Structure formats: C-alpha cells, structure tokens
Amino acid sequence: MNVNVRKDALAGAARGIVRGGETLKQHRDRLMDATKSSGHYAGLKGLELRDTQPILYNKLFSRLRAGVVDARETAKKIAASPIVEQEGELCFTLYNAAGDSILTSTGIIIHVGTMGAAIKYMIENGWEQNPGVADKDIFCNNDALIGNVHPCDIHTIVPIFWEGELIGWVGGVTHVIDTGSVGPGSMSTGQVQRFGDGYSITCRKIGANDTLFRDWLHESQRMVRTTRYWVLDERTRVAGCHMIRKLVEEVIAEEGIENYWKFAYEAVEHGRQGLQNRIKAMTIPGKYRQVGFVDVPYDHPDVRVPSDFAKVNTIMHTPSEITIRGDGTWRLDFDGSSRWGWHTYNAHAVSFTSGIWVMMTQTLIPSEMINDGAAYGTEFRLPKGTWMNPDDRRVAFSYAWHFLVSSWTSLWRGLSRSYFGRGYLEEVNSGNANTSNWLQGGGFNQYDEIHAVNSFESAAEGTGASAVKDGLDHAAAIWNPEGDMGDMEIWELAEPLVYLGRKIKTNSAGYGKYRGGCGFESLRMVWNAKDWTMFFMGNGHITSDWGLMGGYPAASGYRFAAHKTNIKALIEEGKPLPLGGDTDPENPEWDGLLPAAQIKRDKQAITTEEMFADYDLYLNYLRGGPGFGDPLDRETARIQEDLDGGYLLPRFAERVYGVVLQHEGGRHVIDEDATVARRLEIRKERLAKSEPVSDWLAREREKIVAKQAETQVQQMFAASFKLSPKFLGDFKTFWKLPADWDLREEDLDIPSYGANYSMDVSELPDVTTVKFVDE
Amino acid sequence: MNVHNKDVPARNVQVLGIDAGGTMTDTFFVDADGDFVVGKAQSTPQNEAIGLINSSVDGLAAWGISLDDALKQLQTGVYSGTAMLNRVVQRKGLKCGLIVNQGLEDFHRMGRAIQAYLGYAYEDRIHLNTHRYDPPLVPRHLTRGVVERVDMFGTVVIPLREESALKAAQELIDQDVEGIVISLLHSYRNPAHERRVRDIVLEAVKKSGKNIPVFASADYYPVRKETHRTNTTILEGYAAEPSRQTLKKISDSFKEHGTKFDFRVMATHGGTISWKAKELARTIVSGPIGGVIGAKYLGEVLGYKNIACSDIGGTSFDVALITQGELTIKNDPDMARLVLSLPLVAMDSVGAGAGSFIRLDPYTKAIKLGPDSAGYRVGVCWADSGIETVSISDCHVVLGYLNPDNFLGGAIKLDRDRAVAAIKAQVADPLGLSVEDAAAGVIELLDSDLRDYLRSMISGKGYSPASFVCFSYGGAGPVHTYGYTEGLGFEDVIVPAWAAGFSAFGCAAADFEYRYDKSLDINLPPDAPDSDREAASKTLQQAWEELRENVLEEFRLNGYAADQVTLTPGFRMQYRGQLNDLEIESPLPAVATTEDWNQLVDAFNDTYGRVYAASARSPELGYSVTGAIMRGSVPIPKPKIPKEPEHGPTPPEEAFLGTRKFYRKKRWVDAQLYRMEALLPGNRITGPAIIESDATTFVVPDGFETWLDGHRLFHLKEV
C-alpha cells in the first residue's frame, strides 16, 4: 500500500492542485486518517520502494539530502547578516505535498517543524482557493501564533509542481536581525504583547512567477530597522528554495515521478521507524521525571514595560515526564507547566516540540534520516493555556528561547539517566547551557545608518559534561549544534562596539567529576555609535540548567555595564584600562579603575533599552554547561589544569573540589596528600550534616502547609495548580496535604492579570488552527 | 606504468617531481622528449633527503642512468610532501610565542567553535557529544598581550603602549620560544601598531643575543578575520620554519650530486614557490593539488579551457574545477581542522573512495559508505587484512571489476569467496537482495553520490557539464569513471594512461608562481559620482602596485629580474554590506578611470549571476572591493606531453589478456581484458572491457567505448 494518487476517483470532479487531483485539504485529511488508524505514517505499513528497490531509495535520499545541504552552503553567501553568514542561522527543508518534511539541511533545524506548520495552516485554511497556490508562487510567514518560534525567524515557502500538479514544498528560513519590534534586535524584551513583537506575516503570498511583489518589497522594508540585512536575507532564502526546487525537478526527470512520490511519503514513515528503533536500542522503558525553571525578574526599574500588570517577578516552571514503552514508542507530558505570561518568553506548541526534536537529533537520532517521522513517532501532551501552548492571541513570543532552552535541559538529564543505565556513557550529557546573554540594541551605527544589533556569540556556550569526559568549552548551543562564536573582526563590522576583552569565563562551568564546558565573556566598549541603546537578556537569579548525578549546574548569569566611564581620559593619560575578563565578579577589578563611573553590576540579567554612549562598557557573558558526578571524585591533575588554565578560581577548588592548595611562585599547586585527607574529611562532614529524607520531608511539609515561601515560588505553583488539577492533586498527595489545602494567585499580593480571561487565535472567525499535540 | 619510447640512446633528464608522503616517497623524472619514469622508496622522516635519493636511484635505474648523471642534466625540481601537514596534525611544531591585544589573549586557544567539528560528516556535525577541540598551536602560557586597539576603519582607539610590547617580548624571549608571532585586531587595515610591536620585539631579540624569528600577521596574511589570519601566521613559525630547514637540506644534498637549481615547492594557490619564499606556510598542502595542476597543464597544451578534475583514491573523492583555464581559489579555507587565510585551490572532498567501508544503519537500514575506509588493507577479500567490514573493493572483486590475482601487480592475492560471504551476510541478506545485486547496488550508490557531487560543483559555479571536459585519475579513478560521468553529458571524459602517477606529473608541470593578497575596503553606493569611481580605481591600482613589489621581491630572491615576470592582477568584490566576496581576474592590466571601474563591476555582476542566481544580484546596494590580488609567474621547463603516432583501431594481439565475468545492470557478461601498456594510440575498445595495469584498472562497461589518442589519453564515450 502506498500513497496512491486518485486519478479515477476524482475524474470529472473539480480537480484540486495535488498530484492526482486531490485538493491539499483532501490529501492531508486522507494521510492523517490513515496515520491515525494504522499507527504508521500515511498508513504505510510496508515501505514498498525501500523494500523492493533499496538502492534507488538510498540514491534518492542521498542525492536530495546532499542537494539541500549544498543549497544552504551556497545561498548563505548571499547574506549580509553575520548571524546568517557566519553563524549559519538558516535552514532549508523539503516537504511532501501534505507539508510533512522529507529531509533537511543542517542549521536551525527547529524550523523543519515550524515551516511544516505554516504549510499545514495554509492547507487547513483554504489557501488553495484564496489566494491560490500556483507554480512559481512565493509565500512568507513568521507568525508565532501558528507555529513559528518567534517573529525574527522568517520563512520563505515555495510550492513544487510537476506537470501542472503540486508534489511538494520547499521552505527556507533565516533568523533576521530585526523585525521592527518595540526595541531593536531580533529578540527584544520591552513589549509584553505580540503587537509589540514587530512585523507579523501570516503565510502571505509575496510573489508569483518567481518574482517578489513590489508592494511586499516596499512594505516589508519599511517595517524593519535593518533593511539591507532584510533584503539580502530574503534573497538568500528565495535563491536556496529555487535551487532545491530545481534539484527536485531534475531528480524526478531522471528517476520518474512515481518513484519520487513514493519516496516522499515512505521517507517519513522510515524516519518514524528509525526513531523507534533508536529508542529501543538506547534507552530503558519506564518513566523519567524532571523539571526546569527560569526567572522573569520584571519588577525592576531597568525593565521598562508599558503595562503595570507585567511588572512582577515570576518563575517559569516546566515539569516533564517521559514515558518510554517497551516497543520503542514514547510520550512526553508537560503537565503542571506555568501559564503563559506578559513577557516575550511564550512559545507555540510546534516550536516547543520541534525544539525537542532538534535536541533529539543531537543525541538520540543523529542520523541523516531525520525528518517529520520523528514527530509522528513522539506523543506530546502540552496542556492548553501553558506558556508553551498559550490560549490567548495577545501573547508575545520574541524571545521564546528564554525558557525553551531551560525546559529542554531537563530532558537531557532524563535521557542521560537512561543512556547511563544502558552503558552508553559517552552519550550522557548533563544538559545544555542557558543560551545567553543576548547582546542586543540599536541606534545609529558607525556608518551613520539606522541599525540594530544582535550578537550571536551565544551560539558558543559551554556544553554539558558526559559520563566519561568534561563538557566542551565555548562550543555550541541547543538550537544549533554547529556552534560558533565568530571572529571579533566580523562582529566589529556589524556592531559599533570594540572588543576590550574576549576570555574564557572562569568558574562558569558546573563542577563535577567531569565538569561542564566553560562559557566565555566579551567586554565591549561603545565606539562610533550615536543615539545608541542596548539591553541584556538571560537568566540571572536562577541557574536554569542542572548538574547530573552529583554534578553542579553551571553558574547563573549577571550583568555588568558601565556608563560615564572616563575611559577616554584613561586612554589619553596612559592609565590602566579595563581589559580582558571580569574574572572574579565577587572581587571586581574594573570597578576600581573607573571610580566615577555609573556601574550596573547585579543579577538583573534581563533589562530593556538603556542608553549607551561612546566609551561605555557592556559585558557579554556566555554561559557554561552543567557538570557530571561528584566533584570530590575529580582527578586532581584535571583540577590543576583548570587552575592553571584559568577555568576555576582557587577558592572554589578548595571549597567544592576539596583540594588543598599551596602557593608556589604565584601559582596555586595542589598538595596531593593533604587533598586525600581533606576529601575524606568532607565526606565525613557530609554524613554528619545528613538526615533521613523522611525528617527533611516532614519539615518541608510544615512550610508548605504554612505557605512559607517567596511570593514568586507561590505564584509559580498557584499558576500551575490552576491549569492542572492533576498537578495539584499529585502535589497534595505527595506532601500529604489536607484536603482543603489550596494555593491561589488571587490570594497573593501581586497582579494576576490574564489568569482568568483569555481568547485563542482559533476563536477568530474563519480560522482553523492545526492541532499537533494532545492538549 | 612507465611510458617508454623504444630506443633512446642519449636521454636528457630535465624535470624532477617529488611527492614525499608519510610512508613512501615518489620521484617522477621527465626527459626532454616527455618520457617519464617513477621511482619509489620508503620515506625517511629524520632526514628526508635520504629517502629522496633512494627513490631517485630506484626510478633512474629503469632508464639505466646514474643519479649523478641525471641530476647534472636536471633543469628544475618540484617538491611536495606531507611533512608540514603532519607536523601540524600531530602538534609537533616549534615552541612559538604569540602576541595579541591585551585582554584578548584567550582567542587563539578558544579557537573558533567551528574547529570542533570541521571535517565531520553530516551525522557527526549534529551529534554534539562527538565534537572536540584540538590543542592550540600556541599554549596560553606562551601568549602575551599588548595594550592598543585599532578599529575596523583603521582608526586608533587606544594608542600603542610600547612598554607593554617590550614586556611581552622579554617574557617570551625568557621562555626560550623558537618563534614569535604577532597578530593584532584590524592590523590588515592599519598595520602601524603591529609593525611597531614587531620592531620592538626584533630589537629585544637582538639584545638577548638569541636567534628567534618574528612573524607579524600584517606582513604575511593581511586579511580580515583574526582567527584565520593568526592561525596562518602561526603556521609560518610553528610548522613552516622546520620545513624550510628540511628543504634546504634536500636542496643541498641534491646540489652535492650535481644539481644547479633551487627546489621549488607546491603551494596552496596552485603554483610553486621557492623554499626561500617568505610565506612558506602555504606549502602545507601537497598531493591532491598536483593532479589539478597536471590537468590544467594538459588543458593548456591540448586546448581544454573548462576541466572537471576528479581523483579517487582509497579514502576520498576529490574534485576541483578549472574554468576558463583558471583554478578556483578559496580564500578562507580550512586544513588540519584549522580555519586559515590562505588562497587555496578549491578542492572538495567526499569521504568515499575505493576502500570505503559499507554498513547498514542498524536502526534505519540506510546504506552508509565510509567515512572510514580499509585503506591499504583493501577489504575482507584480502584474508590477511584482518578486516571484517565489507568495503567498496570487495564489491569490485565480487562483480569482476578487479582481477583478484593481479591486485597491485599481483603483490597481494584477493579471495573472491570471502568477499561474497561477507557481502551476503552484511548487506545482501538484510536488504533482501542477491549478492551481485547488493554489490552492484552499492557501486551504483557510490557512483551516484560522486556524480551528484560533480554536478553540484559545476552548477554551483554556474555552468553545465556540457561545457566541461572531465579528467579522471588517481589509483581508483578509472574504475569508476564511467559510473560518475554517465548521463552528465560532459564534452569529453579523459583517463590518462598514466593516471596513477598524475599528481607527481602535475607537480612537475606547475608554474613558478607567487601570489600576494591584501584586504581592501573600497565602498561605493550605486549612485556614486564619477570622481568616487575614479578614486576607487586608483586605490585598487595602488594596492596592486604594493603587491607587485612583494611578488617581484620574491622572484628577485631567486634571481629573476622584473622583466621576466608575467603579472596578473585580480580583485575581490561583493555587493555592499555582504560578507562573502567573489574573486575576479581583472579584465584590465591596470585601472585608473571611472570607465575602468565600471568594467570591473560588469565582470563581477556577470560572475555573480552565474554562481548564485540572477535573482540574487543586488546592484542597488552598491559595490565593495574587499581585496586586491597579484599573481606573478616566470617560465620554467615543464614535462612534455607524449605524442606518439596513431595506429589502427584494433588493439594488438599481445594486449589481449582474455575475458572475465563482469556483472552490471542485473546480468553477467564476458568482459574483454586488455593490458593497458600494450595498447597503441588509435586503438578503440568497445565495452564490456576492462583495461588493466599494475597501478590502475580502467573499466569500460557495455554501452561505453574508449579510444586511446596519441598523447596516451583514453577518451570514454557513451554509445
């Protein structure tokens, strides 16, 4: 059985555009019905082409995949934006007629899912009839309400036709530097509703006959600050899509449409089976529970938002439960997650699930056979109304990543426990870093043009430790494993900010038998800018990753900025300058060099636009990764290397790793014998401090009954309880709370605007949203 | 595989090409008639000269000439070797110190994160836990900072504090470094600070009484991107200086035997340079480039302007393009997992060759070729190899492509039955195919991968295969030639009868050519007035003149006067604001006017539309010239291409070796076997046929025909 075309059944009827005469909607409905009833994608219980012609099947895969990868490599050279050209923030994906991905390039592959969601939205909402889908049309989308991660990821989608019938789609995405939101930069923080997120485009037809419409070109450039980046990014996407369309046409001309058509559906089912087989091979059936948190510290003068109901400090919360079954199927349930909020850290269900899929490709399914099959092989439950499946069309998305990255880091831990149990120690990964800070801002740049900046040095954070080795220093980001921090000389072309420091961030890695990778820090001095602003974006009060099996989380974030520095005079007078790194923030060196400066040094790692002038300073601190195993088990030789290399401050070597240090010629040297004794002592101290878990639980329970907790913690739980009676029930059962115990947002002395009233985009007239998860 | 004329009484040996690999050293002698001979000997890394002499003696023995007699006649010699590359890969270079901006001392040891997965296959690029960094070339404790900053326009932000430079120099000298490298941000734009630091360091070295070479990045590779520039400049001190000593030794020991010239070395830009050249790091590349140069030279002699060069060895498939007689140059390539700023002949590699392992993904059953390979151990078919995973060569043996009794001239015996059993168990049964169909399928898949690769490279340059001649060489190239060229519609497909020695031939044929590059920042809006266009022309001309001096200086070192040097200017251009430029050979020998500028722009727009898409052209943004290029060359003696009289189409009887069963397209046929060396120019062979020599096998399946021309080049055609 295959996805046959229905030439006869539809003869005479009003023909749709899909090969064989179905409409897009009929085609997708048929596939989804068959998927549901059979448990196999499109009902494909057998893979006819693969089984009878495995060589041809492999050839098709290999040729198309190589072509898609090649299109990305070629097209990105058209771009002007360093985040596309240097950081590789782009991706091209090939879809079948129903909008399910067949294969993809590397890059920001989260968009395999989000572009697919856009195609499906067009299918479900009758785009075929109006505005029509024709050969050589060009569509554009960035709508986070229908699946995009955030508005700065711009999709270009081009249908592929063969002999007058639609046989698939190709999508290209780039992360643009500015979308004209309230503040400059692609992931701005000042707005609390999506109306401030900037230009929003819902699957709009922007071109026909392979030519972009003039009204689109004029309007879209007016909507953003950085027009040159915008224009060349669009040309990059269009050129890449057209290269891939041409490739598909050539492949079909040589191998026949019938074979291509079969391949386009079998590949998805093949991907689904591949995931199932990997799960069977790598994991142990059972339930894995974990949780992630991140801070939203908005009750602060440097967070300037328009609405007083948004001025609250909250914590975002995502408990998760992975259920792996014996047959290799699995379910990921995020019951108990926080409600969406008045900030830009909300996410659509598709971006949440697609991102998890990205993570899986880095660890569970790093094969070339990655496509939507994995999505069909994974059951998700994301309760409606949570931050990752909002039920209100006002929510903002521009920095959805803030909590996406902190939620997913917990899944690494769940999977890693399973890998560990199976003996795949090399695959263990304690989690991903919080991929911040984001240096953003804008104004007039060194070329006297209106400009926005968005440094992507954050593509090279520390990675989590495995069970056999340390994490990699300054190496990757969860959203793009091909990380890179880029050359300073390129960033200085793009930003009116000179580097006074780029240094490995001491102590940023999570401690452990195997430590996490360290992040790094860049000290930037404003130079040649006019009317300039910048802001910070990252975690500060909360460590958003965790260590594993005794390992520590990575260090949390903080901010350092200095205004009115007098550095101009220090330069002229030949005096000491702040250079290099903020090596020990508890004992800062720079602050003493700048006695008259206004310094901002605190845990407020999220701010909104703040004015900066030439000679002001901004520290861009890129986070480290979490550690694995008990730090007392770390080999002293490794600790000595960490000390010598500036990865670790001596007092933490003593306090956490239990080593005894001696000073020899300005160097800290480990005293091996004393260390053995000291470590024994620490183990004894640990035992002395310990108590039975039951005692600790009883004491904690009393606090819960008495509601002794910070307001932010109470609000976090109250919001989760309201969305999920099950979560409240489980909580009460676990803590053996009285039946009438409850915790409600209304009872807390902070605004709970949005807690009771919401209206989903699906409630708009004539809108059909596509449901991808169990809600 | 030697090509002889019959009786040549007085041989005049003219050119020596050397390919010094890690295990074997090949020498390639060419005489005045274009005849050549190959010598082989084991490499002697402790003193490369010994291996070279041995290899030469071996080669010349075939001609019955003594070493001293031959070397006295030699006009020129070209060296290429892997010693420098190995030194970098194994981190066995000199102990160098590095001076950078104070505050940025970590950037070299941090590397670029891209270096953690450079050279990885798709699956491993996304598989995070496989990424790893190599150790930095210069450790952090040998890195020092100087206080200064220059911005991207070349404007001084922080004036140089000379005392910091002196302190840095003294500390490094005290640590007994063997070289000091200086690389400051934007020094390509304004080198004043960096050169001042260089002079301070030189002064301090002098005072110390030590002999430590000093390398300032602005003097060597003045191009943007500090990681690339710094890595490359470090290579000068770290890896190239030891090679310079080696090359001097080789040159000297050959001079003792009577040579009268300085050895030249194959360089990344595709020319050869003297071992005395300042920028010696660019000789880090070797072997595979030789074939490309050989193809270019053959093309020049025989009149082919567009050539697709393809080389299959045991582990990889290397492709390079020559368009309009020009090599394609990549400006910020990577090598040995380092990003560099060298002009490198663009050569793309697929990690699939004749020895590649074949596996089925245990989870998806997808067929995987490589990336690892059996290498010299061939495959399961060689009982002594110890290999259990089937390789491409196993498929060849099963299908009758290779003669199991004459592999490497019979040096090792292959066992077909072993290959059959292994393919059955590992590939055929799991896929539900017969052994023949599985093996043929794998070959088809490999050929298809290689074909797509060739096609995408050519279309990526904006061309179609119809305007290209494909050259196929390398030990395993001719086995696959039909497979990866089938259906692409090349103008012609050529297999040189000396395919296995083609790289060494290419080395011997390389030009004596220097190339210098310089970053520029000329920016013109689309509506720039004529005066600005004229000024832009003049800025470019000024840069060309500066580079011209550098090129001429290099030749002066080797005794060539300026009037002997042919100069070719080029430039790099992009639309304003872009980050990638294109290298364009200047349509004009010199520029000065508005009209000249417009001609440069036209040349750029033509190329851009071809490489990307016409729709990607963005003239409304204006233009930037980002770099000036100057190449200079002098004529040198080169090997002659053999030219023999043509005989009839029928091969001589002594060339016919019999028949062998050969499987392709689901059927067994009897392939005619021929001995390559015995075929005569003019002979025409229709497939199925297999033409064997000790070093290579040329497969001509049914549906194909080949004929041998007077240059001993086979032409392969689909019939």
Automatic annotation (TrEMBL), chain A:
- Domain (Hydantoinase B/oxoprolinase) ranges: 54-631
Query: Could you say which EC number(s) this protein's record lists?
Result: 6.4.1.6
Keyword Ligase annotated? yes
Keywords annotated in UniProt: Ligase
Record GO terms (molecular function): acetone carboxylase activity
Can you say what this protein is called?
Acetone carboxylase alpha subunit
What is the organism of origin for this protein? Pseudochelatococcus lubricantis
TrEMBL record, chain B:
Return the broad EC class.
ligase
Keyword flag Cell membrane: no
Superkingdom classification of source: Bacteria
Query: Mind telling me which InterPro entries this protein's record contains?
Result: ACX-like_C, ATPase_NBD, Hydant_A_N, Hydantoinase_A, Oxoprolinase-like
GO molecular-function terms, A-Z? acetone carboxylase activity
Acetophenone carboxylase-like C-terminal domain: which residues? 528-719
Name by which UniProt lists this protein: Acetone carboxylase beta subunit
Whose protein is this, by species? Pseudochelatococcus lubricantis
The organism that produces this protein has a lineage beginning with: Bacteria, Pseudomonadati, Pseudomonadota, Alphaproteobacteria, Hyphomicrobiales
